[in-house]
């Protein structure tokens, strides 16, 4: 009796442990199916081949619970219509979205690289524009200095012309004075000689 009680208690404890273990274990259901492509529209018709989920096919006709389909390979057969869908399968949608995501990531990477290149160009242009501004300012300053020098040169040319005319007059007057002085001296010497001659004679 005690042995029987011990066995019962052990089974209860073991059952509780198994139940607890079963409750804490996670499970998953796969949506990948292996489907039979049959020779005719019925479960007893011979299987031509097996198809995986998401296999692309063309539905040709319907008979009862079966679709007559054609595969991309050109083979035809019958498929239980509950497994034929007209919407794009989720796996294909996910695959398409992943491809689009990869393409967008590639574009983002390319745009980021282009953005970095443009930033570098902008920095270089900014640096060059500083030099251009300095050159323009220097050119304006030199142009003003050149205008000032041109004005000074014009004034010097006018002054030089005036001085040249004044110098010519002075030289003319000096020359005339020398000639006149020479003439006076000549007259003086000549008069003295005449007086001496008259005294001697």
Question: Tags for this entry?
Answer:
SH3 type barrels, three-stranded antiparallel β-sheet, alpha+beta, rod-shaped, disordered N terminus, 201 residues
Please report the distance between the alpha carbons of the first and last residues. Answer: 206 Å
Per DSSP E runs of 2 or more residues, the count of β-strands stands at 5
Order of helices and strands: HEEEEEH
CA-based gyration radius: 61 Å
Residue runs with pLDDT of under 50 for 5 or more positions: 1-8, 16-22
Proportion of helical residues: 55-70%
Shape: rod-shaped
Characterize the main sheet. Answer: 3 strands, antiparallel
Query: Which structural class best describes the helix and strand composition?
Result: alpha+beta
- The neighbouring-strand order within the major sheet is 3-4-5
What fraction strand?
Answer: 5-15%
Overall mean pLDDT score?
75
Number of contiguous helices? 2
Describe this structure in words.
The protein is α+β, with helices and mostly antiparallel strands and 201 residues long. Among the domains are: 34-85, SH3 Domains (SH3 type barrels); 87-161. 67% of the residues lie in helices and 14% in strands. It is built from two helices and five strands. Strands 3-4-5 form a three-stranded antiparallel beta sheet, with no helix packed on it. The chain starts with a helix and ends with a helix. Mean pLDDT is 75; it is low at 1-8 and 16-22.
């Amino acid at each position: 009796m005690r042995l029987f009680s011990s066995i019962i208690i052990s089974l209860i404890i073991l059952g509780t442990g198994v139940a607890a273990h079963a409750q804490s274990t996670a499970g998953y259901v796969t949506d990948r199916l292996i489907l039979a492509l049959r020779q005719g529209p019925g479960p007893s018709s011979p299987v031509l081949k097996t198809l995986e989920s998401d296999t692309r096919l063309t539905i040709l006709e319907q008979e009862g619970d079966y679709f007559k389909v054609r595969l991309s390979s050109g083979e035809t057969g019958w498929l239980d219509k509950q497994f034929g869908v007209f919407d794009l399968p989720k796996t294909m949608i996910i695959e398409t979205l992943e491809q689009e995501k990869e393409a967008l990531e590639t574009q983002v990477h390319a745009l980021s690289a282009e953005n970095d290149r443009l930033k570098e160009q902008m920095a270089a242009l900014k640096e060059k524009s500083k030099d251009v501004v300095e050159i323009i300012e220097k050119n304006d300053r030199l142009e003003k200095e050149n205008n000032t020098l041109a004005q000074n040169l014009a004034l010097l040319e006018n002054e030089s012309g005036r001085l040249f005319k004044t110098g010519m007059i002075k030289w003319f007057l000096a020359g005339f004075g020398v000639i006149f002085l020479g003439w006076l001296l000549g007259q003086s010497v000549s008069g003295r000689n005449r007086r001496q001659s008259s005294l001697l004679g």
